[in-house]
Design brief:
The chain is an alpha/beta fold and about 350 residues long. The protein has helices at about 135-145, 190-195, 210-215, 235-245, 255-265, 305-315, 315-330; strands at about 25-30, 35-40, 55-60, 60-65, 65-75, 80-85, 90-95, 105-110, 115-125, 130-135, 175, 200-205, 230-235, 250-255, 275-280, 295-300, 340. The chain folds into 2 domains: about 5-65 and about 160-340, QueA-like, CATH 3.40.1780; about 65-145, QueA-like (Thrombin, subunit H), CATH 2.40.10.240. It has 7 helices and 17 strands. A 9-stranded mixed sheet has the order 2-1-17-16-14-3-12-13-15. Helix 6 (about 305-315) packs across helix 7 (about 315-330). The chain is globular and about 65 Å long. About 40% of the residues are buried.
Amino acid sequence: MQVADFDYHLPEELIAQEPLEKRDHSRLLVLERRDKTIHHCRFPEIVDWLQPGDLMVFNDTRVIPARLWGRRQPGGGRIEVLLLKALSEDKWEALVRPGRKIHQGQRLCFGPEGQLEAITEERTLYGGRVLCFKQKGAVLRGLLTEVGEVPLPHYIKVPLRNKERYQTIYSREEGSVAAPTAGLHFTPELMEKIKAQGVKIGYLTLHVGLGTFRPVKTKLVEEHQMHAEYFQVSEELAQEVAAVKKAGRRVIAVGTTSARTLETIALEDGRIKAGAGWTDIFIYPGYKFKVLDGLVTNFHLPCSTLLMLVAAFTDRELILAAYEEAVKERYRFFSFGDAMLIL
């Protein structure tokens, strides 16, 4: 399967640069898979498409200030670091630029007074570095909050005025380097309306890392290797999924990260197994979903693994037709853009 088969034309002006004033003022394109129909709605109208007994599963991860600006020591050359995943209390896997100038044993300092320090260790499989920080645990987390920045995607050029707008309202488990953006549309009031509709709410955690946003550089889809990301799923959620499936109701994932986590721990009968670990599941057309009955998601980059997942849940031709319709109707794309509900 060719990666180029998942390309589409997107005018640059449709890439949303800032979040809307109110989270739930975004638009919602509803795609019904069975009869291949498209409906144009406002996001709060999502309640009209939900049924009592449905279960919506949200990813409660929280974005950390994972982008660091610092200097090499000695020498003072400026560097940029993007933390990807914690390996221990004082070690992180990271991307470093300019990588060619960072050798093993290099000392790096961050912050206006160099209060955060790290030593570079071995290279990683994906071209990054392992950084061993001088500080660890709570002290390290405090310094990251002090000197780090929330890393916005490269296609967003406008500074974010309110950093909480790149967090979901239910975020609580720190560890992501990018937001699970399908959840950015939900407000406390909308969540209450959904519950009042008789819809169940469940949470899992997947810390978004390189696996979610790493570009596909191979020509063939099957040759791409996902980067592992950490997840946690409670026994409570596993029981909820089992009850919903037994009752013949729907499990609707909010975001591709929730979808990937559910399918990682899926049993053949549609139930899930509680636990924690690392997932590098890569979902693309041909994959047989075991848990998912619906998906809330944003509009994704051309040729991305996220678009491939959505195409697997629908149909490649159908999803590209829906994207073409969204472009025609001037929907806003990517992280701060509008949403889709696929049923």
